[in-house]
Amino acid sequence: MEKPHILVSGAGIAGPTLAFWLHRAGFTVTIVERSPKLRASGQNIDIRGHGLTVIERMSLQDEVRAKKTNEKGLRFVDARDHCRAEFPVGDGTGFTGEIEIMRGDLAIILYEATKKDVEFVFGDYVTGYKESNDGVEVEFANGQPTRKFDILIAADGWSSRTRKIAFPDKNDSCVKSLGQWGAWFSLPWQPSDSGWARWYNAPRGRMLLVRPDNERVTRASMWIIHDSKKFQEAQQANEQDQKQLMKDLFADAGWEADRILKEMQNADDFYLQHIAQIKIDTWSRNRVCLLGDSAFCPSPISGMGTTVAIVGAYVLAGEIVQHWPDYAAGFEAYERKMRPFVDKAQKLAPGAPALANPQTQWGISILYFLLGLVAWIRLDKIMGASFSPPATAMELPDYGTLRLKTQ
């Protein structure tokens, strides 16, 4: 019997995780990635709860732990860099996850775990497809001939091109803006960049965040509550225009803004993103299924994006294998099991993100007073799960060895 052949669009986190499990089950997997090479960049990400369990089932826990940033926790600081509230990493249920790792490091680990068994096609992407009774013929952008697969999985991010093709009637409405924009990049380490993440608020809904990685490089991000046309236009503009917009908006922010803006100009890993969630009423249509951020992006402020991507990939692989060749039943079971978990992951704190990014100095003072009180009486520990991302808020299936019924 010929092995089923699956096409995955996107070589980030969810795509290679899915490919790992499908290959183990006896499937042939091809991953197509728009970037000309593996995108081994990005900021700090968390792996929590069931996400870490899946990593352990992949026997990748040692590689992942070796790349931990070893972030000590989070400090809220004022314009003079005085700490106003401190939240140590503890058991990893707060701001800093149990496993804090650079996105690029995790992408490399997953790529190394799959590259010998999975076909990777870089510098190309899906432009269209035609379905038939026995498969889906996929068209590509850069000269690659049309190829036939059994099913197509869209794991190409929150702004997924593949989702736009498969769900043209739902693609625009599924993007739920949180009214915030963020920019990420790296900058040279300096002595004030300790092992702590430092969070600084400035009036007009602005926030600066610097975090350590494991290579003595500092990772910076700039956040602003702003939903104007300026950002929508900037997203379509070149990188220099995007940097100029951030410079204009943060020039008078105070604290270490001057240093951060100066280093931003030279950063070669800068990227700007609309802070949004993806909420779509179905994750599959015929032979196409959505996975990861393309299906259920919870937004960077949730602390759950990587975890739901890893868990979602594991569950999708397990249900495809258990139901094959009835892929539709597999897709339905995947969504039925994952949707409640995703709903909890997407449930943000009341008023977020605006509440954590006040518009006035008075609002910032109140925020820091309340955070200081919480830290002083250790309310975050007393309340436990109420302050923690819901990283174990489902019964994680155990698919055992994952083998096709015919094997």
Top CATH class of the domain at 5-71 and 103-174 and 278-345: Alpha Beta
User: Count of helices?
Assistant: 13
**Shape from CA axes?**
globular
Quick one: CATH superfamily of the domain at 5-71 and 103-174 and 278-345? FAD/NAD(P)-binding domain
Main sheet: which strands, in order across? 5-4-13-14-15-12-16
Gyration radius (Cα, Å) is 21 Å
Domain FAD-binding: 6-345
Keywords: FAD, Flavoprotein, Oxidoreductase
Protein name: FAD-binding domain-containing protein
InterPro entries: FAD-bd, FAD/NAD-bd_sf, FAD_aromatic-hydroxylase
Key attributes of the depicted protein:
407 residues, alpha/beta, 7-stranded mixed beta sheet, 6-stranded mixed beta sheet
Description:
- The chain has a domain at 5-71 and 103-174 and 278-345: FAD/NAD(P)-binding domain (3-Layer(bba) Sandwich), CATH 3.50.50.
- It is built from 13 helices and 18 strands.
- The strands form 4 sheets. It has a 7-stranded mixed β-sheet with strand order 5-4-13-14-15-12-16, sandwiched between helices. It has a 6-stranded mixed β-sheet with strand order 7-2-1-11-18-17.
- Residues 382-386 have low confidence and may be disordered.
- With 407 residues, the chain is α/β, with parallel strands linked by helices.
- GO terms for molecular function: FAD binding; oxidoreductase activity.
- Keywords: FAD, Flavoprotein, Oxidoreductase.
- This is FAD-binding domain-containing protein.
- Residues 6-345 form the FAD-binding domain.
